[in-house]
Amino acid sequence: MIPSDFIDEVLARTDIVEIIEPRVALKKTGQNYTGLCPFHNEKSPSFSVSQDKQFYYCFGCQASGSALKFLMEFDRMDFVSAVEYLAQRAGMEVPRSGGGDPEASARRKSIYEILDQCAAFYREQLRSHETRARAVDYLKGRGVSGEVARDFSLGYAPPGWDNLMNSLSTSNQNRQLLIDAGMLTDHPEDNKTYDRFRDRIMFPIRDLRGRTIAFGGRVLEGDAGPKYLNSPETPVFRKGRELYGLYEASRRVRKLERFLVVEGYMDVVALAQHGIPYSVATLGTATSTEHIERMFRMAPQIIFCFDGDSAGRNAAWKALNNTLPAMEDGCIARFMFLPDGEDPDTLIRQEGTAAFERRLEGAMGLTEFFFQTLEKDLDTESVEGRAGLSKLAVPLIQQLPEGVMKQLILDELSRRTGLAVERLQEATGLNRRSAEPRVAPQRTSRQLEARQSTLGEHAINILVRRPEVANLLDEDDLGKLKAEPEWQLLVELVQWIQQNPGTSTMVLLSHYQDSPYFEQLRRLAERDPMLDLDQLSDEFLDTLKKMLRAEDKHQKQRVIDELKMKRLSELTPAEKALLAGYYRSTR
Asked: Looking at the domain that runs over 443-579, which CATH code has it been given?
């Protein structure tokens, strides 16, 4: 955790114009600077930067914030990286508190540094090593220009067991760093240490800050061994999170509209060479939900590209399964299958960029691929086949987040099975909460839950914008709110703020940077409550009162739902009277 007073000091030493001007063309107009907004397409400037207030605002799309937020949105840095970037510019060292491990942090920093040295070494070998001609000829044969090779920082690991080791292992400490970074393979039992990558084209894998975190190495044509060799996982590299080409795509495309997911590093480079700068590749693993969530945070559409054979379709089905939990409303996933014997590199060179992009536009939608795959071995003309489709589809639909997308796929399943949505939900238990009674809750109960969710989000919206309002909540009220699962995040936030007096919005977001709640909190922090700051305290208290009243109603509704599940003979006179009063009130 980064102390809040340090963040405030960093922002005080930062001139927002110096941060934004290299990225956006600004013109001085009166006291402010104006330019075309980098966050939406526009022809006349509506983006304003105030040097006096150290704040930017767009009158077109309402994007706004400090220098810190601009780096997070425009350069797609995470919170900590943005603070570190500003601190470095200001000549300040970022202090840590709250249980951080200084030794581990220093070790990671050293690994980043040694990996950057490795990248420089491999680039130099591509320029000067006596066997570089094989690598250069290979890249030229694949149509890679010097400009693209430079942009992707391509390099060459020459033949031999110890080229990198002899160059960079100048001390025992550096030797150990190279082992920790995955660049040397160490076999202490045999007293052998040697270069992991030998006689390969080298592809540095970079994080969104541009730091080298790992490598992929591709064999040259006709060479033996695995086609691609990847770095092992290290303190700075996790395969299930990182994507090759993500950094390069974020730099080449100002506003990403989609990603194309391919299998090989060379495909990413070749596609960029031919005008497709938004492709990425996984690092020797299947596309994970974390990969997908990361891409959806940067662009609304993902197109998966696979071979058209059975292995490719199986891989696509795995990708679909991992996509479902990330399919929030507004996200689009599509699947493109390649002709036999082709890969993206050969295909785009053969038919050209325009034809390749037409293939992308015609890629199969998630819903079509979903049902096409499930129905492949079923006779959906028969009752048994339609029942089988329902049995296969429902557990997958359950993985979708609540929203319009989930409802539309359910509607499509209803159409294909001939069973009304309500009957389908009733027969399969779709959308049924495990903690609720077996009988579907009455509409009044569902309405209360929806109201609770809305009230809770509004309260969190106020809380993240003005954290001090957490002190308006006492233990009794907090205890009542704990009863509702929908309000657990609000309760957690209140408790943490109360334990950390003086917390600011940025400190709060920094604390939750690595939690699953971060994107929700950031989204709520950006939502304008349409109130002045001095009105937020009263609004927070009013919202809490509504929440507590809603909780009281929900508790009563739960009692009613439980009574309705009992036989009449099991009810006490008091319970019968309570139930009778409920039915009279709902007539």
From this structure: 1.10.860.10
CA distances from 88 to 10, 83, 84, 511 (A): 9, 9, 6, 21
The architecture in CATH of the region 375-428 reads: Up-down Bundle (1.20)
The Cα 504–Cα 79 span in angstroms is: 14
Q: How far apart are CA 315 and CA 304, in angstroms?
A: 10
Class of domain 103-230: alpha beta
CB 551 within 8 A of CB 542: no
The domain 4-89 is classified under which CATH number: 3.30.450.150, 3.30.390.50, 3.30.230.10, 3.90.580.10?
3.90.580.10
Q: What fold, for 258-353?
A: Dna Topoisomerase Vi A Subunit; Chain: A, domain 2 (3.40.1360)
Q: Per the structure block, which two tokens stand in for 246?
A: 């993500």
- At 136-160, the pLDDT tens digits run 999 998 889 999 999 999 999 999 9
How many C-beta atoms lie closer than 10 Å to residue 33's C-beta?
Answer: 22
Collapsed DSSP state (helix, strand, coil) of residue 55: strand
pLDDT, tens digit (0-9, with 9 covering 90-100), for 58-103: 888 888 888 988 998 888 887 888 888 898 888 888 876 654 556 7
Rg for the chain, CA atoms, rounded:
28
Residue 300, strand partner residues: none
Q: Which of 356, 146, 175 is nearest to 262 (CA)?
A: 356
Task: Quote the distance between the C-alpha of residue 421 and its chain's center.
Answer: 32
CB 14 within 8 A of CB 56: no
Task: Work out the number of other CB atoms within 10 angstroms of the CB of residue 506.
Answer: 21
In whole angstroms, give the CA distance from residue 550 to residue 545.
9
Helix (H) or strand (E) holding 544: helix 533-565
Please report which helix (H) or strand (E) contains residue 389, including its range. Answer: helix 383-397
Neighbour-count burial of 541, counting CB atoms closer than 10 A to its CB (0-12 exposed, 13-18 middle, 19+ buried)? middle
Domain-wise residue ranges, the chain: 4-89, 103-230, 258-353, 375-428, 443-579
Q: Which of 74, 66, 49, 48 shows the shortest CA–CA distance to 10?
A: 66
Give the predicted TM-score (pTM) of the model.
Answer: 0.64
Give me the phi and psi of 185, to 5 degrees please: -95, 125
The closest of 340, 283, 332 to 306, measured between CA atoms, is 340
